[in-house]
Amino acid sequence: MKIVIVGAGEVGYNVSRDLSEEGHDITLVELDETRAEKVNNELDVRVVKGNGSRPPVLEKAGIFKGCSVDILVASTEKDEVNIMACWIAKRAGVPRVISRARGMEFTDSPTWARELGIDVMSSPERSVARQIEELLQVRSAIHTFELFEGQAGLYAFKVGEGSPLVDLPLKKARVKYPDLKSIFVFVERDKKGFIPNGDTILREGDLVYIVSLREHIWQLEGLFQRSRSRSLKRVFIVGGGKIGSRLAMLLEKRFRNLAIKLIDRDREKCEKLASELERTIVLCSDGTDEDLLRYEGIEDCDGFVTTTTSDEANILMGVIAKAMGARKSVAVVRRKIYNNLSEYLAVDALVNPNEALASVIMKHILYPYRTGALSVIDKIGAETLEVEIPSNSPVLGKKIKNIGLPKGVLLALIARGDDVIVPFGNSILRENDRVLLFACSRLLPRAVEMLKV
């Protein structure tokens, strides 16, 4: 495909790299000289320097009446630039246009995107806030991702000392715990990872990714850590931007008796948040103020979340909070390098909104007619994708074990009507089943083709 990407920030750079490695013809438009030069030196893509909202610049990138561009992705940090780039591209005849939206009001309803002719307008703040909420509730989870509208999820747990899963083959774990509706999809051990099978034996310290029904996650947590999360009583949020404010609203709605305290330096922003939030106490101060944190009860807080625009400040404040007694710290980071260093950082979990946005963009490029969510788990080179089995699929009526899915592909969940099922090898697929595929990134397109979805 011929694809034009506007914006060479973290999202645009990573999407350009991944798509060019798959053989697509990529042109990247970037105004900043330093970013443009970096892309030119490091990626096999064509670079056009300039403002991506200007018609002459987009024309240099190949967008004009009758052009052969298949998709335009606008991923800059300015909504006006993204919207204008999509508007120009659509009127030039580009079939699909995708826009990033930092202002959540643009994605409160589909009206804005539809009236502007934008096929996909995505703001990752909502999904990131839900991910953080899940990380706070399930204290020992290191990663989470919502599946099937919250009925299930992808979770990552460390195998703790004394876990009954240690030295137990996974096929025996299913026999020993028959009510556990979960499937083990990936194991990371000694900085290497693999997709497990029934003979896989877990070891203490393994990081295990599991797809599970939401109602069984507490049982899973107890098996991995020998303890379960207590109910949330007190949470601190540092940073009153889009993610921090959205998280506070979500927590207020979900937990009626939760004490929430939000800290931000900007007095005008604090006054605005104090008028908008119902039960959150808004403090105009510095999130690294030790005296303030102790006075407000940091040593007895269940979660400390840092959501400012500085990755370094978020990590530092998360480390300070843990040292002062916070049970779990979650830091928002936007640069990929920190994800790769997560095991060396003294915070419990890192959440990257740019990864969430990149997943949405990649899903709509690679699987444009699949309505399910794509999750790109970049750290382990894997993806999950929800697809629906059509009436002409060759797998209808077949047992999963007889489908012939390639090694490295798992069918992890089936949604059938109102029920979500964790399948076995003898489970049979039916028309209109929604299934969750888990696979190494390079194998997912092959699995989609085999299912004829």
Amino- and carboxy-terminal Cα gap = 20 Å
Low-confidence residue ranges: none
Structural class: alpha/beta
Q: Can you tell me the CATH superfamily of the largest domain?
A: NAD(P)-binding Rossmann-like Domain
Number of helices: 15
The Cα radius of gyration reads: 23 Å
CATH class descriptor of the largest domain: Alpha Beta
Strand content: 15-25%
Mean pLDDT level: 88
Fraction of helical residues: 25-40%
Largest sheet: 6 strands, parallel
Number of domains: 4
Biggest sheet: strand arrangement: 3-2-1-4-5-6
CATH fold description of the largest domain = Rossmann fold
Total number of β-strand segments? 22
Compact summary:
This protein is an alpha/beta fold and 453 residues long.
Overview of this structure, please?
By secondary structure, the protein is of the alpha/beta class. The protein folds into four domains: 2-122, Rossmann fold, CATH 3.40.50; 140-225, Alpha-Beta Plaits (2-Layer Sandwich); 231-355, 3-Layer(aba) Sandwich (Rossmann fold), CATH 3.40.50.720; 381-451, 2-Layer Sandwich (Alpha-Beta Plaits). Helix content is 32%, strand content 25%. The chain has 15 helices and 22 strands. Strands 3-2-1-4-5-6 form a six-stranded parallel beta sheet, with helices on both faces. Helix 1 (10-21) runs parallel beside helix 14 (353-366) and helix 6 (125-137) crosses helix 9. The protein is globular and about 65 Å long. The mean pLDDT is 88.
Task: Describe the secondary structure blueprint for this structure.
Blueprint: E1 2-6, H1 10-21, E2 25-30, H2 33-42, E3 46-49, H3 55-60, E4 71-74, H4 79-91, E5 96-100, H5 111-116, E6 120-122, H6 125-137, E7 143-147, E8 152-158, H7 170-176, E9 182-189, E10 192-194, E11 207-213, H8 217-225, E12 234-238, H9 242-254, E13 259-264, H10 267-276, E14 281-284, H11 290-296, E15 303-306, H12 311-323, E16 329-332, H13 336-340, E17 349-351, H14 353-366, E18 374-377, E19 382-388, E20 409-416, E21 419-421, E22 434-440, H15 444-451
Parallel strand pairs: 1-2, 1-4, 2-3, 4-5, 5-6, 12-13, 12-15, 13-14, 15-16, 16-17
Antiparallel strand pairs: 7-8, 8-11, 9-10, 9-11, 18-19, 19-22, 20-21, 20-22
Helix pairs in contact: 1-14, 6-9
